[in-house]
Design brief:
6-stranded parallel beta sheet, globular, Rossmann fold, alpha/beta, DNA polymerase, domain 1, single chain, 2 domains
């Protein structure tokens, strides 16, 4: 890797990459749809994953022809999710060690998520992670959510670097598509919900953030 393409910063997705919220989303979706005699199946989950919350809830309504308004269903999903987060929210495997490694190497870090600002603030603050990041980009900062590359292009701009000088860590196909389209050094870290996703164009597909290839790409000793 020549100097012009040296990786100078790391940008993280939030759900399913830094925190276990994809598990909680699944439980919340199952609960909300079970109340209506509907099923939260794998096909719907994959369509919703990585998208802004408004788009995801709209997909849920359209898939099952629900009579609920978008606002009403969003409020209900939020209530169910918050109850789950109060007892079960946790970082994904390897997060703390990886963040410590990046911090010790003075590599700037940021978050780019399709979530709302309030949600991202709550999750990161609850887990004591917010102060690790230079900034957090959310759905409020962009017009087009993932898989559009807008959020990652904005992240590179905020960091003052070229997209190719930025490592992006994502767990989903939609997120990786956004990162690759932005021109970032893209790394897929799929979880149990996204292991069957396709990740064309990524540089690394890792099991967890503890994969030594990720640190080596950043010139950090594993």
């Amino acid at each position: 890797m020549n100097e012009s393409n040296k990786l100078l910063a790391v940008v993280f997705d939030l759900d399913g990459l830094l925190v276990n919220t994809e598990d909680l989303y699944e439980q919340a979706g199952e609960t909300v749809l079970r109340r209506r005699g509907k099923t939260y199946d794998a096909a719907l989950r994959e369509q919703m994953m990585g998208r802004p919350v408004v788009d995801a809830i709209r997909l849920m309504i359209d898939c099952h022809s629900l009579p609920d308004t978008l606002d009403d269903l969003m409020c209900e999903c939020k209530e169910v999710l918050e109850a789950l987060m109060a007892t079960s929210l946790a970082p994904m495997p390897g997060v703390e060690r990886f963040l410590n490694k990046l911090g010790a190497a003075n590599i700037p870090m940021a978050v780019a998520t399709s979530a709302t600002p309030e949600y991202a603030e709550h999750v990161l603050t609850t887990l004591g992670l917010k102060n690790r990041f230079r900034f957090v980009l959310t759905a409020a900062d962009i017009r087009h959510g993932k898989p559009d590359p807008e959020v990652y292009l904005l992240a590179a701009e905020r960091l003052g670097i070229e997209p190719s000088q930025m490592m992006v860590l994502e767990d989903s196909g939609n997120g990786c598509h956004a990162a690759v389209a932005a021109g970032a050094y893209s790394v897929a870290v799929p979880n149990r919900h996204t292991r069957e996703h396709k990740f064309p164009g990524v540089k690394i597909i890792a099991d967890t953030l503890t994969d030594s290839r990720i640190l080596r790409a950043l010139n950090i000793s594993p």
